[in-house]
Amino acid sequence: MDKKIVWTRLKHGQLNVYIAAIEEGLCYLGTPDEDFDDLEKWAKKRLPGYVLIEEEKAIQFYMTELIEYLDGKRKEFTTPISLHGTPFQQSVWRALVDIPFGETVSYTTIAERIGRPTAVRAVGTAIGANPMLIIVPCHRVIGKNGSLTGFRGGLSMKEQLLNLER
Questions:
Q1: Which of 127, 138, 157, 162 is catalytic?
Q2: What are phi and psi of 21, to 5 degrees?
Q3: 115-143 pLDDT tens trace
Q4: Top-level CATH class of 87-164?
Q5: Is the pTM above the cut of 0.90?
Q6: What residue spans in the chain does CATH classification 1.10.10.10 cover?
Q7: 27 belongs to the catalytic site
Q8: How far apart are CA 19 and CA 7, in angstroms?
C-alpha cells in the first residue's frame, strides 16, 4: 500500500490554510488562501510515492495546537514534525524551531547558528521554502536593521504573528 499524507483545510479566524501530516509528524502548513495544487506540487516534489488523503480526524491534534497558538493559549508546539527538504534547508528550518517564542533574530544570526556565516542569502531562500508556516517560525526572522522582511504569508500576517507573541 502507498504511504499517505493526510490533509485538511484549516479555517480559523482569518487563517485559511492546508495542513498535512505523515506518520512521522506534521509535514506541511501552507500559505494562507493557496490552491490545493500547491500542496500537491509540494507532495510530489518532497514525498514522491505518497498519496494525499483528506482525513481531518487524523490531524486534529495538530490543528488543536495551532488553534491554541493563534488564540494566544500556547507558546510552543509539542507535535512531532517531519521536515522534507535539502540538508541545508533542514538545518535552517531546525535553527528556526530553536528561536524562542516572542523573540526575533536576523538572517545573519541564522546563518551563523548553522555554521555558514556567509550564506545569508541562501538562508533567506531556505526560509522562503519553509513548508510549515508558524510551526517552523520563519516569522521570527527579521532584517538585520530590525525591519520586517519577506514572508510567504505576507508582511501583514508576519506582523500579526509577532504581535501575538509580544
A1: 138
A2: -145, 155
A3: 999 999 999 999 999 999 999 999 999 99
A4: mainly alpha
A5: yes
A6: 87-164
A7: no
A8: 6
